[in-house]
UniProtKB/TrEMBL annotation:
Name the UniProt record assigns to this protein: Nucleoside 2-deoxyribosyltransferase
Pfam entry (one): Nuc_deoxyrib_tr
Coiled coil residues, start to end: none
Amino acid sequence: MKKIYLAGPDVFLSDSIEQGQRKKELCQKYGFEGLYPLDNEIEDTFEHKADMGLHIAQANEKLIQECDAVIANLTPFRGTSADVGTVYEIGLAKGLNKMVLGYSNDGRNFLQRNLDELTGVRQQPNASYIDKENMALEDFDLVDNLMIDGGVHYPIIKNEVYQTGERFRDLEAFEACLMRLANHA
């Protein structure tokens, strides 16, 4: 049975264990085994929080090394882009030649999210945009930063979930990734 690492900010949900279980059940439905980051058993015996955090990072890297594929929740998290930890996991998986799929429960592309959410954005005479630091806004009609879109093997699946509290719980696009992966196998 192929193993799939389930990357994303879902681990920060108040019901993160239950969300992970829902994802793992969907994986089983398609003949896969889901590896959820919170499956790692981490003892709370560390003297410093930083040591515990680094131990968790190593445990998650080990799960990625053991998997055959990664499905990443790329829904914007605490900003206009995907969760930075999830992006790191995509890069690691890509570097290990793992199959990487991604989805976002925000239907807007990266430029539109930046235009909607950043303050101080100005349009230039050439129709490009700059932010309040006078830095260009990326405009490639992609879901996220070009390196994130470029890090997945198929186009990122977009879904529009704007109901507060549901953007990180809705699994329609996640299941579409599972179907895509099942058809690839």
